[in-house]
Amino acid sequence: MKEIAKALHLTSAEVSSWLEDKKNDRKGVSKGFSRGVLETKAQALSEKKDWKPFNAVLALLVYGLVLFPDVENFVDFSAIGVFIAGNPVSALLADLYYSLHIKYEGRRKGMLFCCVPLLQEWLTSHLPRKDSFVSNPAGLKWHQRMMALTEKDLFWYSRELDGTKIILSCGDFPNVPLVGTRGCINYNPVLAFRQLGYPMEDKPDNNLLDEFILKEGEENPALLRKIRRAWGQIHKKPLTKKNCIAKPLYTQWVRERVEANRLPFDMVVRPLSPEPITMVPIEEAEELKAQISELQKKNEDWESKYLQVEGKRARLERDLKYQEGALQESQKSLKESEDKREKIGDGMLSARENLIAKDEEIERLKQSYGKIKEFGQSATASQKKWRLRYLEQVEETKKIKKQWRHEGNQSQEFEGLYTQEKARREYLQANMERVLAQKNQEFEEQLR
Fold first, then answer.
1. Region labeled Disordered — which residues (predicted)?
2. Is residue 84 a contact partner of residue 4, using CB atoms and an 8 Å limit?
3. Distance between CA atoms of residues 408 and 399, nearest Å
């Protein structure tokens, strides 16, 4: 449940509360979610504009109700498992082949349990789309209309498939093993080459058509493991020249297959008209019956030829329209090229005028450059002259500074000598004053 909740961007508790059992005629009981619960949740998420879980819940509804239907109005765990895996293509193909095989094997009637809209889209994509086949003026049934077609009436190949890489086989399998919601079955790519644009050269090798089927309810873990490993070793068809044709050997093989397997209906082009109730002699009645039978046969032949001619006419009309479309595209491209050429011509004329103007501007710039160059040379000479004078001034300044420093040193020496002499003089003066004072004192003592 955690993986389911994670894929739906919801909580495990909420998702677990939706789980319920539903009666299944094949399995007995199926587990899953009811359509009503999922639609209610999607509506609530839409109102809240919570788009991430809304998109996931809506996608789960599509998986369970459209792509992998089983129980009505119920999404079972088989569909949920494919939803979590993320790529439904191989499972869709497996369910389609499995359902067709089961119906054919038992000659059963009833509904196909697969994505029927996908099968219908594939079938109608190859049928004629115009004229009498679509309008059906004769009121023929589907199988009568289809039995009147020839291989030339069908659209075997769409160019939208150009560049598609074809898986030829997987692992040790001679073909492609598929795992669906109901069982496992193989797919034979060699039978689909013409639908992909490649020729059907010869009858297929029987080894490439080896079939296997693991039916619903059967257990074979070893085969399942082998299939899983095989999908890790995919063998693809190398790109070759395409040619959507079928050669006689392949066509003969198809006819033999049809005769061996038999189709479940008669090849009747038009329903037989009711015979009028008329009283006629037996001999005349027998003759009329023979004529009616012959006319009916001729009518069937002519009707078949008519449908074939109509198909051929439709193909020719389609090819003509395709060629007309291609011609219109070519004319449109030619006109666009002419318009571009005119624009380019105008652009080239304008560019030429611009080039002439640029040349004139370049010439003016050259003249200006010559004057600037002369001025620059003169300025360079003046610069050299002033630089020499500057260097001379610098040298003279250095000499003056040197002389000034020398005189400064002499001045400092004279100042030192002056200070020393001054100190000496003051010392001598002090001594003289002291001596005079002593002499005066001695003289005064003598006078006394």
1. 327-346
2. yes
3. 14
> What are the structure tokens assigned to 431, written together?
């001594």
Q: Output phi, psi for 318, to 5 deg.
A: -65, -45
Which pLDDT score, from 0 to 100, does residue 33 have? 93
DSSP structural state of residue 166:
P
Report the SS3 class of residue 301: helix
- Tokens coding 315: 């193909």
360-389 confidence digits (pLDDT tens)? 878 887 787 777 777 777 777 777 887 788
Q: Residue 200's closest CA among 248, 238, 149?
A: 248
CA distance 145 to 268: 9
Is the Cβ–Cβ distance between 188 and 237 less than 8 Å? no
For residues 151 and 255, give the distance between their C-alpha atoms in angstroms, rounded to a whole number: 12
Q: Nearest Cα to 8, choosing from 18, 73, 20?
A: 18
Rounded Cα gap, residues 164 and 198, in angstroms:
12
How many CB atoms are closer than 10 A to CB 204?
16
Give 206-237 pLDDT, tens digit per residue.
Answer: 888 888 899 988 889 999 999 999 999 999 87
Q: What are φ and ψ of residue 189, in 5° steps?
A: -60, -30
Quote the tokens at residue 173.
């399998």
In whole angstroms, how far apart are CA 305 and each of 182, 266, 310?
43, 18, 8
d(CA 181, CA 84): 13
Q: Measure the CA–CA gap between 267 and 280, rounded to whole angstroms.
A: 31
Q: Which 8-state DSSP code applies to residue 64?
A: I
User: Residue 168, SS3?
Assistant: strand
Query: Which of 89, 85, 88, 91 is closest to 3 using CA atoms?
Result: 85
The continuous run of DSSP H or E covering 21 comes out as strand 20-24
Burial label for 200, CB within 10 Å (0-12, 13-18, 19+), is buried
Sign of the CA dihedral 54, 56, 57, 61? positive
Beta-bridge mates of residue 176? 187
